[in-house]
Amino acid sequence: MSERMICIGCGVTIQTEDETKIGYAPPSALERDPMICQRCFRLKHYNEVQDVSLTDDDFLNILHGIGQADGLVVKIVDIFDFNGSWLPGLHRFVGKKDVLLVGNKVDLLPKSVKHEKVTRWMKQTARELGLQPRDVFLVSANKGDGMKEVMVAIDEYRNGKDVYVVGCTNVGKSTFINRIIKEATGKGNVITTSYFPGTTLDMIEIPLDDGSALYDTPGIINHHQMAHFVDKKDLKVITPKKEIKPKVYQLNEQQTLFFGGLARLDYVSGGRRPFVCYMSNELFIHRTKREHADELYERHLGELLQPPRKSYCDQLPPLVAHHFTLKEPKTDIVFSGLGWVTCHEPGAQVIAYAPKGVGVMLRKSLI
Ligand code: GDP
């Protein structure tokens, strides 16, 4: 192929030689307009993904490229999985460039939550993680909430320069950019979106009307998210689609909560107190006595305790215990990609279990 052809879905250079490598399209697809690689084609029409991944080195190269370029960086995080979707290395590359921090999927937070409180929390947490954003926004790229404000801010801060949109996979970056395109040009659904992490490859350039461009950068796969440990159907169960209804459990010491069969929280000591669970409304939470928990898990994983469904239990890594003593007045125990449990008042001892490899951490309460 003499001319470099780009997939309109993910931005990858199209090749027709190797079906197993990224950017493959059958020769017949070259006639299609707009051009789309096989992977995006499948995703779009059959809702299935092919396993193509970006290595950490490739991603570092991309960040390095952004570091060298002059422009505004728009960093998107998933507010439902803030820490899991944070790009830890970014601040080392951005230098003095302005960064706007956008928390997406705000539609998932309970309506009673004050947005100012969340943006304050985001600013403080960003600073603690080494990033000093110029401004912070909450949006729902799906629904469009907050998008106008971000678009105005992008236009103001970019000052005629290019815009680089970065974010780890599944934060909703494609949805965010699609919406900008739609608002700006009236065309919808230019980039593929899906339930699956890792669907935007290579930089895709979207021309802005003054000759600058908005670049969609590929998302790095965050291996600590629960999404990588469950299958397609189960992922639908754990991915919240609408406003989360928090579930409150008044726990006595030595009680256990199971989150399907994917995670578990043991309340060891600290007297009777509430635990508020922020997870997909469809995820089944089961309370039991701690002394019965091991046996229950062994006997009922994949049945009473699901997801994972029975046929996928073998593929779930064993649960690993994380011991914590809670010190803040309000602490979130976060299971990356699954949600979090807020514990009120300091002093509780808990053990949080998640499949080996899934991130579990404490943070100052978001809500
Ligand atoms: P990308 O990998 O970062 O490009 O993410 P996508 O745009 O493909 O979105 C990943 C998933 O998040 C999809 O299932 C989207 O439907 C969902 N999503 C994107 N934006 C929002 C949002 O504002 N709210 C909610 N609830 N889900 C969203």
UniProtKB/TrEMBL annotation:
| Entries under InterPro entries matching the protein | G_CP_dom (IPR030378), GTP-bd (IPR006073), GTP-bd_ribosome_bgen_YqeH (IPR019988), Mito_lipid_metab_GTPase (IPR050896), NOA1/YqeH-like_C (IPR048422), P-loop_NTPase (IPR027417)
Record's SUPFAM superfamilies? Answer: P-loop containing nucleoside triphosphate hydrolases (SSF52540)
Where the record annotates domain CP-type G, the positions are 60-223
Any one GO MF term held by the record is: GTP binding
Gene3D superfamilies recorded: P-loop containing nucleotide triphosphate hydrolases
Q: Which domain of life is it from?
A: Bacteria
Q: What is this protein called?
A: CP-type G domain-containing protein
